[in-house]
Fold each of these.
Amino acid sequence: MIIDRLYGEVKNKGNVCVGLDTCLDYVPDNMMDRNASVEDILFEFNKRVIDATIDIVPCYKVQIAFYEAYGLKGMSAYKKTLEYIRNNGSIVIADIKRGDISSTAQMYAKAHFEGDFESDIITLNPYMGFDSIIPYLDYVEKKDKGLFILLRTSNGGAKDIQYLNVNGNEKLYNHVGDKLKEIALKYMGRCGYSSIGAVVGGTHLEEAEEIRNRLDNMFFLIPGYGAQGGKGSDVAHYLKNGNGGVVNSSRGIITAYKKYEDGIEKFDEYIRKAALNMKEDISSGSKVL
Ligand SMILES: O=C(O)c1cc(=O)[nH]c(=O)n1[C@@H]1O[C@H](COP(=O)(O)O)[C@@H](O)[C@H]1O
């Protein structure tokens, strides 16, 4: 199952998920060949980031909006990026946050688990209802695919809806978590986690321990590190013995070179350094717990 692969990769390479939220503003001048197309520029940038990190990170998350924004050429870069990651033996999470129902969801599943945009794991938004998850489950069961479903997100606005009290005095995200856990139990890997995981932002800490204990069979995608303020000692609360989750950083890694005077010349070195520092920060946070 995909979750066993991801668990194994985390065991060998740590918890850093590199977020390829790539836009032209992040591309250094020397990669901006005037004659090259947007497709080539975005893909070449991603390829450099991937080549600099693939031996030290377990997976990549590619946020589709950054490619959609550049139209067809952007989507070609998206396709090439997914293929490059998968062909080089790594795991790709397509951050598409879909959340529609029925026949539409079936087409989303086909669009992102087959064909041009095939990925290993996708992100979903369950807040339209649990029936919006069902059309993807066949791919989890029969095609070795995985889902990370939004539970408690990293943004400030998470409190607007996800924290509302339901069923007396229970937080909505806990209610959603319990339901997802039930579905997840049907797709358990040998590693003790399900191919259906949850997205929990690494920026709110108060409930981290409760969420980790309550959803003990669920692997977490943990965004919010770096640019949004999350630290290694924060996100470590969502891990179990250093595994059970991957921590995403997008801007914090792919724009790391901008902090240095010689950043453009040593682009690859600084990208790798940012991923290695983050890996160290998370693992020292885990040791303290
Ligand atoms: O599902 C996500 O990946 C996600 C969930 C969440 O709660 N918060 C969150 O920031 N994300 C995504 O994680 C990435 C964070 O980017 P940086 O803040 O640049 O590291 C973006 O692609 C967001 O869309």
Amino acid sequence: MTRTNTMLEVSGLGHRYGGANGHQAIADLTFEVRTGELACIVGPSGCGKSTMLRGISGLIKPTSGDVTLHGEPVDGVPSDLAVVFQDYSRSLFPWKSVRANVEFPLQSRGVGRAERRERADEVLEWVGLSGAAKKYPWQLSGGMQQRVSIARALACRPALLLMDEPFASVDAQTRFELEDLLLRVRKQFDSTVLLVTHDIDESIYLADRVFVLSKSPATIVKDLEIPLGRERDQITTRESETFVHLRSEVARLLDVKSAGPAPASAAETTQIM
Ligand SMILES: Nc1ncnc2c1ncn2[C@@H]1O[C@H](COP(=O)(O)OP(=O)(O)OP(=O)(O)O)[C@@H](O)[C@H]1O
């Protein structure tokens, strides 16, 4: 892999389902994610976020535009890309242990047995699940299962980690813990992350940069730098003036009528309908 300043380049990406007279899900998306950056995409429900991620990850062939990963065109699913989905219960194998789940994609990438074990143990330690390596996913809480999904993605040492609403199916407290876990692991592994979320506050809390999408067919209405520094805290960051200002700006761009003032409790966040 060539280490360039741009990890992901999306240029004029569009996708129409169902042929010429079908449904235009995304129109003309152009943006870049820099190497080492954590970028969030926030947009209204149904605007085409999943379609965009499918196009970027090579799961579908977009009907227009180009995607390049570290300078190479994406054509099919790149082996150095990993995706974490919202629905952890369907993405983990219930009959495999936690460790075997984490090792699984390494096997198909040709990583030898000893290294698979070493990498799995390293990432499981990082997500705080060393003690659960021999358990099965169904023996774990939802938040723990999503930690396993994150560990599995990290074990592949992806050039780019794509995350599709990864924390949307867990309770508020667990969500904050997982957000902080993501901030810690991206620092540890120097990861480049593109995360899609409905949650304005989450996008600002996590990101170095937020791309705000329009309604379907999606285009980018704003590319916002988030000058909150690398160290973030669920209470003090969220009550800072910069955070509150950015939150209102994104809500305005998305035309969210109920954004109001910053939440008194970190558990209240702004969801886009
Ligand atoms: N396989 C498909 N065939 C036809 N239309 C589709 C298909 N997948 C998605 N769509 C349509 O494309 C549009 C964008 O869908 P997509 O799932 O990408 O949006 P989204 O922003 O991820 O939605 P949500 O926020 O609800 O998860 C929607 O109108 C959807 O109905």
